[in-house]
Design brief:
By secondary structure, the protein is an alpha/beta fold. It is built from 6 helices and 5 strands, in the order βαβαβααβαβα. The chain has a single domain, classed as Response regulator (Rossmann fold, 3-Layer(aba) Sandwich), CATH 3.40.50.2300.
């Protein structure tokens, strides 16, 4: 079980993503815009961030750049998975260069979301 921040404004995607994450018993905090996300990160450091790059108020690009420039080393290294409709040639490289750890083009199937979350969380675990 992990603590996940889901930064997503689309109600349809919220419903699907929350169902997948909660089925795995993850604790999920839903943040519908970048302004709320940045306020949240002042007091919370989840295990993983699932970030839509095209969110209102403050876009996801700014959110991830702010995390990577944080004074808090936990936020600078926080795993961020971009869930984005940006799926043109070169977008993957732009997303990773902006500071995201993973790039996942939308639409994201429940199975793919589950696999990606599991992979990222397992990669964080200390070696035995």
């Amino acid at each position: 079980m992990a603590h996940i921040a889901l930064v997503e404004d689309n109600p349809h995607n919220q419903t699907i993503f929350l169902a997948v994450l909660r089925r795995r018993k993850h604790r999920v905090d839903l943040l519908p815009d970048g302004e709320q996300a940045l306020a949240y990160f002042r007091d919370h450091v989840p295990d993983l961030v699932l970030l839509d790059l095209s969110i209102p108020k403050i876009d996801g690009w700014t959110v991830v750049r702010t995390l990577r420039a944080s004074d808090d080393p936990r936020l600078r290294t926080l795993p961020v998975v971009a869930l984005t409709a940006h799926a043109m040639k070169g977008d993957r490289d732009r997303v990773l260069a902006a500071g995201c750890d993973r790039y996942v083009p939308k639409p994201v199937s429940p199975r793919a979301l589950d696999r990606i979350v599991t992979e990222v969380l397992e990669a964080q675990r200390p070696a035995a």
